[in-house]
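queue> pop job 88
queue> type: inverse folding (structure -> sequence)
queue> payload:
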């Protein structure tokens, strides 16, 4: 059974870092060109500013997933509080049944409790998450393209 809770970034960071290699191996499109190199100082600053929020998934106390949100307003929506997913991942062995859906719903409810009005999430097309998000009432708002122009 998974439990979901909100935890400070700085408190769960060491455990999250232990999951990053598997997360990176699963989702990174250009891992052969770029190394994982998170800017931990900027994350710490966002936590200090109160805009970085982490929802965790735990199994018998062990961290097995995280949903990291950046909460604030957008330049073109200065009065609407939004949350953009920075990263989220649930260990593959914990994705059985409705665990992923429960995790997303818990994260949505937390964002709503903060006063967030609009959520944004991005994910790689090969992960086939569209059906899950659509089932939860999300709509496709944009498409993002990426092009490597330098080494």
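queue> result:
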């Amino acid at each position: 059974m998974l439990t979901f809770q909100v935890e400070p970034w700085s408190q769960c960071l060491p455990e999250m870092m232990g999951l990053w290699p598997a997360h990176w191996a699963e989702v990174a499109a250009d891992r052969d060109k770029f190394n994982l190199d998170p800017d931990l100082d900027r994350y710490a600053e966002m936590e200090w500013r109160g805009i970085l929020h982490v929802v965790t998934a735990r199994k018998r106390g062990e961290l097995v997933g995280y949903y990291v949100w950046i909460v604030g307003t957008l330049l073109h929506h200065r009065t609407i509080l939004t949350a953009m997913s920075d990263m989220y991942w649930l260990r593959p062995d914990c994705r059985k049944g409705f665990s992923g859906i429960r995790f997303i719903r818990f994260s949505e409810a937390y964002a709503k409790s903060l006063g967030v009005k609009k959520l944004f999430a991005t994910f790689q097309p090969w992960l086939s998450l569209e059906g899950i998000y659509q089932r939860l009432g999300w709509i496709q708002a944009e498409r993002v393209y990426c092009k490597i122009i330098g080494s």
